[in-house]
Amino acid sequence: MPIRIPDSLPAHAILEAENIFVMTEHRAMHQDIRPLNVLILNLMPTKIITETQLLRKLSNTPLQICVDFLQTASYTSTHTDPEHLKQFYYTFDQIKDRRYDGMIITGAPLDYVPYEETAYWDEVCKIMEWTKTHVHCTFHLCWGAYAGLYYHYGIKKFDLDKKLFGIFPHQILKKTSPLFRGFNDEFLAPHSRATDVNVSDVAAVPELEIMALTKEGSLAIAKTKDSRQFFVTCHAEYDANTLALEYNRDMEKGLTSVDLPINYFPDDDPTKAPVVTWRSTGQLLYSNWLNFYVYQSTPYDIKDIK
């Protein structure tokens, strides 16, 4: 089924070229069904790339998905055309009285920055508090996952001795969970982070359950037992070249100590095109989240979300 986005959003043409069913607002207005309303707080500097990655994964859904994009008012991105932000993004004051079936809080390149020193930390805290009463199910991604675990449960992050960078195998701890419907017993997914949390700290919170770990034992996916909040540290939405672009960017900065991403380039040769081994993981993860934890349980009348 289609994903519903503004007609002129740059991702529209990209997704249509990939044969992904995208519905324009004009066409959607003539269908007598209630779409799922999803809000994306996009904290990434490369906003258009992140928009396209997430919309690609949200495209395989049982109903129309009406997506709104949220930016911070306390910090304005310097990497995105201001006209793009003006045309496609809301600020919190503009949507705070609305309710949403689902929300995604993205990552941000803030590995070594303490939360309280983040320019928009107070605003993100306000938004995360707001999700408790205005969003049926929230999907915290990468930095957003660590920020959510810290804000909601006081779980502190720590810096890794070495960046977790590449494609890693994962073990599923809750194999009967609808989140993993269609998954293999083990799955591959990208990581690109220099931050982690102690799994024991997550396990000690009665409201939380650990769903998946990397094979080395690092947290990959956790959620609340009432399934209203998800915390995902892997990037199953990444494009084929995302890690390559990051690696090349770091090399251009003169960071010669940067390691090659693990299990990514064939023969560890950065001149060779990466082979995507995580595409199905990404599609299943996001569609299962939408199908089972948003669509199946959200109130029909969106005003009943609380």
TrEMBL record:
Catalytic residues of the enzyme: C142, H235, E237
EC numbers: 2.3.1.31
Catalytic function, reaction form: L-homoserine + acetyl-CoA = O-acetyl-L-homoserine + CoA
Keyword annotations of the record: Acyltransferase, Amino-acid biosynthesis, Cytoplasm, Methionine biosynthesis, Transferase
Keyword set includes Amino-acid biosynthesis: yes
Record bears the keyword Cytoplasm: yes
Site (Important for acyl-CoA specificity): D111
One Gene Ontology molecular-function label: homoserine O-acetyltransferase activity
Pfam families: HTS
HAMAP family: MetA_acyltransf (MF_00295)
Protein family (similarity comment): Belongs to the MetA family.
The protein, known as: Homoserine O-acetyltransferase
High-level lineage: Bacteria, Bacillati, Bacillota, Clostridia, Lachnospirales
Gene assigned in the entry: metA
